[in-house]
Amino acid sequence: MAVAPANLTAIALCLLIAASSSSSAAAYTNYTVGSDSGWSFNETTNATSANYSAWAASRAFNLGDYLLFNTNTNLTVIQTYNLTTYQACNIDDASGNDTFQYGGGSDQFGEALTVAVPLTLEGPNYFFSDADDGVQCQKGMRFEIDVKHGSGLPPSLNQPPPPPYAEPPGPDAATTPPATVVNAPGNGGSGGGVNVREAVWGVSLLLATLFF
């Protein structure tokens, strides 16, 4: 399993602030998953705190929107573009290119946190919790959405992918002109949207001071 981790970063917070303060910010929406119920599972009743599929079905999602998961460290937030991973309710066979695990970076059990996930790729996006070996997911801790283009990604999320790694030149390379690598800029709904996650994954506890 090679699932990309999502850690809290000050860079991600700055990007979200910039997007929120821009003149086009009105075109984007922050959705609190499950509304007042949050992203929660009741261990006593063995049931979710909300019908997440129904919640998602009643809303329209576009590139540049954020999903805010009000949750705690007992649960996980998994985002995947892989239907097989979603249906399996686990990330055992997931790829780091299509599945991402979000967390708050805390090792305290039951600690409250807010996880913010930007929507950067058009089409089907799947979310679930794989806690309790997938039992929570099987009991309803999952939902899928269809992300539309809308106004496209805001500049803060629409960044070109990083250049590929190149080996340092050897001693015989002095007379050889360096190769030029041209990277196509990311565009809303294509591969560029995924690469930007390296800068914006896991805006969680820091966002609580902005929205709550």
Strand order, largest beta sheet: 1-8-7-10-11-5
Computed structural class: alpha/beta
In total, the number of strands is 11
How many helical stretches? 7
Helix fraction by DSSP (H/I, runs of at least 4): 10-25%
Could you tell me how far the N terminus lies from the C terminus, measured between alpha carbons in angstroms? 35 Å
How are helices and strands ordered from N to C?
EHEEEHEEEHEEEHEHHH
Q: What form results from the Cα inertia axes? A: globular
Question: Which ranges are low-confidence, i.e. pLDDT below 50, for 5 or more consecutive residues?
Answer: 21-25, 176-212
Q: Give the radius of gyration.
A: 19 Å
The description of the largest β-sheet is: 6 strands, mixed
Please state the average pLDDT score. 76
Q: Which percent range describes the beta-strand content?
A: 15-25%
Question: What does this protein look like?
Answer:
By secondary structure, the protein is α/β, with parallel strands linked by helices. It has helices spanning 10-21, 52-57, 83-88, 135-138, 191-195, 197-200, 208-211, and strands at residues 4-6, 30-32, 41-42, 47-48, 61-62, 66-72, 77-80, 99-102, 112-118, 123-128, 142-148. Strands 1-8-7-10-11-5 form a 6-stranded mixed sheet. A hairpin with a 4-residue loop joins strand 3 (41-42) and strand 4 (47-48). The protein starts with a strand and ends with a helix. Residues 21-25 and 176-212 have low confidence and may be disordered.
